[in-house]
Amino acid sequence: MFDLDNWQEIWATLRSNRLRAALTALGVFWGILMLMLMLAFGSSLDQGTKRQMKGMATNLLFVWGQNTTIAHDGLPTGRRVKFVTADIELLRRLPGVEWLAPRLQLGGWMSGYNVGYEGKTGSYTVMADFPDFRHIISFEYQAGRFINDRDIDEQRKVAVIGQAVRDELFPADVDPIGKMLKINGVYFQVVGITRTLRAGQNGDRDSHSVFVPFTTLKSAFHIGDRVAFFAMTAKPGTDGPELERQVRAALAASHRLDPGDELAIGSFNAFVFFNKFQMFFVVLALVSWVVGGATLLAGMVGVSNIMLIAVKERTKEIGVRKALGAAPASIVAMVMKESIVLASLAGLLGVAAGTAVIGGARAVLERVTDSPFGPPAIGFGTVLTAVAVLVASGALAGIIPAAHAASIKPIEALRTE
């Protein structure tokens, strides 16, 4: 295996027709490069999705009221479903609910509201929440705390602000904790500053939000018996679809909805969403291996064809070797080594090129926090697997040429012109 003469002979054979060897190697090079880049793309998309959803519970369910599409219990279609505070206890009693966060938004969904501090104002999302919301969306705290039970019970006028609110309304040398924010003529004392864990649009929304106690918002702004939507998580052992079924059934009975009217209640089931994404990434990795493997296979077919041509050109040489006593096994080993070396060299160059491209993309994407793509990565085990595939493929590509070389008879070979 490590005979210097053998390696010199292999190198001389590959050098004898450099163009042919280079074109053959290009197919293997491209196949392994495509495989690495496709796997890296899947990894990048996976990391980007996880970064966008970081801080959000994976067993999460959102539900909100919409319009009925089926007449039921004497009530017409087109009726607006409006959740009320009585629904809070109704949902809390469900066996599948772990954490429940009723929510209200001042000004309505996807709209900002003027918030001011000492004459400086900005438009921000003002949300009314319960303490359980911290289990729905996780935050880091630059200072202070989140809303607690006493804030709810005593209807305290306190507020928790996002990082962007702090940066845009307060001077850099002012500590916002204890200061008073003005929201539509009502003053709220700042008790906490959050730092979002999410990226992209979700992270920007978190950063530009003001959180106040649910009960305080209802009383201070004279909002009636209303809940805009519910956010909740499933207890361990309860999956997302089962939790959604329980919630829909309870709300349908409470609001006199047809049980089959799925459009009357809108929902976002993170459990189903995350499962679909995980399945997507599994399929994407499988497709990457199939497509990259097929490209690599095409390159290996080229290696096998080139080795057959090389064996035919060296028929007389092989005949002389056999006439001088070379065993068939040595002829097979010679051809197999040449095939493996050609495939491995081309493949390792492809691995090096893929590593360089992935490293460059990683350096760029690590600095971009709002991109749907995260830093790509290829595991060391994957690289080792690719190298093993290269060696095995090179060996397979050499089987037919080696068998043909071993079958050459010395007398017939010596007659070959």
Describe this structure in words.
The chain is an alpha+beta fold. Helix content is 53%, strand content 17%. The chain contains 13 helices and 11 strands. The chain has a 6-stranded mixed beta barrel. Helix 9 runs antiparallel to helix 11.
What are the key terms here?
417 residues, 11 strands, six-stranded mixed beta barrel, 17% strand
Neighbour order of strands in the largest sheet: 3-4-9-6-8-7
Over all CA atoms, what is the radius of gyration?
34 Å
Helix tally? Answer: 13
Question: How are helices and strands ordered from N to C?
Answer: HHEHEEEEHEHEEHEHEHEHHHHH
Major sheet description: 6 strands, mixed, barrel
Oligomer: single chain
* Average pLDDT score: 81
Q: Which consecutive residue ranges, at least 5 long each, have pLDDT under 50?
A: none
The shape, in one word, is elongated
Number of strands: 11
Structural class by sheet pairing and helices:
alpha+beta
Q: What is the CA-CA span between the terminal residues? A: 32 Å
Strand content: 15-25%
Estimate percent helicity: 40-55%
Write the layout of secondary structure elements.
Elements: H1 4-16, H2 18-53, E1 60-65, H3 86-92, E2 97-105, E3 113-117, E4 120-129, E5 139-144, H4 149-153, E6 158-162, H5 163-169, E7 180-183, E8 186-196, H6 200-207, E9 209-213, H7 214-220, E10 229-234, H8 240-254, E11 265-269, H9 270-313, H10 315-323, H11 328-365, H12 380-406, H13 410-415
Helix pairs in contact: 1-11, 2-9, 2-11, 9-11, 9-12, 11-12
